[in-house]
Amino acid sequence: MRITRTAVGRSRRAAVLVTTGLTAPALLLTGCGSGSDSSGSKGPDENGNVTLIVADYGQFGYKEAGLFEKYHELQPNITVKEDVTTDEKVYYPKLLQQLNAGSGLADVQGIEVGRIKEIVDTQADAFVDLGDAIDVGDWVSWKEKQATTPDGAVIGAGTDIGPMSLCYNTELFGKAGLPTDRAKVAERVAGGWKDYLQLGEEYRKKAPEGTFFMDSASAMFNAVVSSSAEQYYDEGGKPVYKDSPSVEQGWNLAAEAASKKLTQGLAQFSDPWVAALRKGTVATVACPAWMAGQISANAGEANKGRWDITTAPGSTAANWGGSFLAVPKQGKNIDEATELVKWLTAPEQQAAVFKAIGVFPSNARAYELPEVKDARLPYFNDAPIGRIYADEAKSIPEAVLGPKDGVIKDTISTQINNMEQRGTGPDDAWKAATDAIDKALG
After folding, report:
1. CB 59 within 8 A of CB 297
2. How far is Cα 19 from Cα 12, in angstroms, rounded to an integer?
3. Contact at 8 Å (CB) between 362 and 139?
4. How far apart (Å, rounded) are the C-alpha atoms in residues 68 and 340?
5. In angstroms, rounded to a whole number, what is the distance separating the alpha carbons of residues 381 and 379?
6. How many angstroms separate the CA atoms of 357 and 60, rounded?
7. What's the CA dihedral at 3, 91, 410, 278 to 10 degrees?
8. Are 415 and 432 in contact (CB under 8 A)?
9. I want to staple 91 with a disulfide (CB 3.0 to 4.6 A). Which of 39, 57, 173, 363 is the partner?
């Protein structure tokens, strides 16, 4: 998932700031695109110079890491320009339109993980097989499988992933009599998300006035579902969200959180959610790797040092988010675009993006590079995020993806918000969700 969001700051201690330091201002993930006016792939000019267009959404971090300029230095006849759409929900329909029209696509196109299955199933023939260009074995095993067709074609090279953690406000925890040390917090939720809710009930007993244990029950729902191999579809491609154990578990936990008033009931990334972070009324947030940046940017400098990061509840790793780079066959510079994708998703470049904006690499060889391995977040009490996220990434189960995962997830999240904000009963909310999903799926 790469949405319009804001970013992250990280560094080691002062002795190594030059090699691993990141600051919150440098990590702004607003998705305020560079707004290139590029329209699509064009062939070489009369001098043999090539301009490659990379179309993506939100923020992939290549500009911030200076990678396009560096590539031009390595390949002087190639200039790379980025065509950014702020909102992925606007970007994807346009991508489908261009695919169906057979024109207008860039040399390289970003694809969000919630869309990759639909592209693999319905549009794979429109993209170059990258299997021979990239070393698939470099990526965490489940990442490239998400972009692989039944006959073995790899239509997307993995960019980032979203290994799960738990972000918590140490100041609020302390005032509520809860432990603030990240290891002790991890012990308290080691049994899973049920333990997390029990910790929330303890928090509520002594909570500072006007504060809540979590921001959103729908975020917890997504974290729970993301830890399971079977989520919304089975391996045969059949929608099973109504009977999925992970969906049932996540829904029941969300309903419990709403009924016990453990959540502030905020739709994530909304203005009220941003305000809650700034005012310090939220004690915990389910934290895929990219979420730490949301907190640091929106909570602001005044809350620096009041937050920390620990491992996610339970013993099962989870992934929430991630994207791919793909090369359309209709492009005019297929060989050059393929080489660019190979270079952008190599471990060194993924580590550079992580250092620049905080999105976590899917290329596992990047985990041993100092920019990743030694990474810490000063905003979050120097939390060792390189180690936390790498450990999580290596044990994430291979999830079964479906073509409408994003639709199902968003619809259920809306109804969870209704339970929180409007007091809708769990049965009524579930019926509304399933009715809407069934209609969307046809």
Report:
1. no
2. 9
3. yes
4. 9
5. 6
6. 8
7. 30
8. yes
9. 57
Give the type of residue at 347: P
Q: How distant is the alpha carbon of residue 66 from its chain centre?
A: 21
What's the maximum distance between 2 C-alpha atoms anywhere in the chain? 73
Structure tokens belonging to residue 47 = 């001098």
Find, among 392, 374, 357, 370, the residue nearest to 226 by Cα: 392
Tokens of 340: 């660019």
Given a contact cutoff of 8 angstroms between Cβ atoms, the answer to whether 116 and 401 are in contact is: yes
Write the Ramachandran bin of 54: left for phi over 0, alpha for psi from -120 to 50, otherwise beta: beta
Q: Is the dihedral of CA 182, 188, 190, 195 positive or negative?
A: negative
Element (H or E) spanning 413, and its range?
A: helix 405-421
Number of other residues whose CB lies within 10 A of the CB of residue 198: 13
Cα(371)–Cα(21) distance, integer angstroms:
8
Per-residue pLDDT of the chain (442 residues; tens, 9 = 90+): 444 333 332 222 222 222 233 433 333 333 333 444 456 899 898 889 999 999 999 889 999 999 999 999 999 999 999 999 988 989 999 999 999 999 999 999 999 998 999 999 999 999 999 999 999 999 998 999 999 999 999 999 999 999 999 999 999 999 999 999 999 999 999 999 999 999 999 999 999 999 999 999 999 999 999 999 999 999 999 999 999 999 999 999 999 999 999 999 999 989 999 999 999 999 999 999 989 888 998 999 999 999 999 999 998 899 998 999 999 999 999 999 999 999 999 999 999 999 888 889 999 999 999 999 999 999 999 999 999 999 998 889 888 999 999 899 999 999 999 999 999 999 999 999 999 999 999 8
Question: Measured between alpha carbons, how far is 442 from 424 in angstroms, rounded to an integer?
Answer: 26
Q: How far apart are CA 154 and CA 130, in angstroms?
A: 5
Question: Strand, coil or helix: what is 279?
Answer: helix
Please choose, from the candidates 108, 149, 420, the residue with its C-alpha nearest in 3D space to the C-alpha of residue 261.
Answer: 420
